[in-house]
């Protein structure tokens, strides 16, 4: 364990988690997340990004690619209630440096103002717009973290279920895949969780679903169909509350014959990859993800490390 991780764990457990738990509503939580993203990135990396529009869905690109280039379509995390392309711009830029492929961050709608299925509808619209522009689905990589990882898998389930063209591969960092909240690790890892305030999960679910079925695969891909799924790569921390969302998702994908790689890391925070500017463990994890992507797409030279 690096000294940076030791220090970050203390900060997240005793400051960030408590602060997140105190946010009175989604608007306040969004402001909190934005401030944290600015500190984490030590600046505003999104100022160099290129804006785009997929119908009614805004997006940011690391740079505009040619339609013949492989691309990464990345859905940000934030529990479907916070986060945006700006909060994840630094992570997108690092993914692009490691893979050599431009990354697109759709600004999908958030709850409670836009409850389920708004986020899914926007994710699907972004995918369909890329394909309509001439991007080969087999040269698109889907990815995301936390709720965004669940969103990427939900989109994959829809593509598999409708027999639509599929992406080259999918990766997810600590994906939120089950809004029934039935994973045992939500209880067994409650004491060891470093970042997420466990007691707010029920409230989060209510804000997102607003009476909708929690087993709908468009929000809980754990209940989806994945016939002829492309390869999937999942990274999760062993002691986080959403560990079982990842492990059960992997088992579900394998029940359809899917090729799934799971990396279960040690006592790291939820979506530790987000802290790549601080943690060597995050940079190693993202390097492993880039290597997985290159197994399923032509290798592009890494721009730098």
Structural notes for this entry:
Helices cover 39% and strands 14% of the residues. It is an alpha/beta fold and 305 residues long. It has a single domain, classed as 3-Layer(aba) Sandwich (Rossmann fold). The chain has an 8-stranded mixed beta sheet, sandwiched between helices. The longest helix is centred in the first third of the chain and has 20 residues. The mean pLDDT is 95.
Write the layout of secondary structure elements.
Blueprint: H1 3-22, H2 26-41, E1 50-54, E2 57-61, E3 71-75, H3 89-99, E4 102-106, H4 118-132, E5 140-145, H5 147-161, E6 169-173, H6 185-188, H7 201-209, E7 232-237, H8 243-255, E8 260-265, H9 280-296
Parallel strand pairs: 3-4, 3-5, 5-6, 6-7, 7-8
Antiparallel strand pairs: 1-2, 2-4
Helix pairs in contact: 3-9, 4-5
Structural class: alpha/beta
N-C termini distance: 20 Å
Largest sheet: 8 strands, mixed
CATH architecture: 3-Layer(aba) Sandwich
CATH class: Alpha Beta
Strand order of the largest sheet: 1-2-4-3-5-6-7-8
> pLDDT average, as an integer?
95
Shape: globular
State Rg: 18 Å
Determine the number of helices (DSSP H or I, runs of at least 4 residues). 9
Q: How helix-rich are the residues, as a percent range?
A: 25-40%
Please provide the count of β strands. 8
Report the portion of residues in β strands: 5-15%
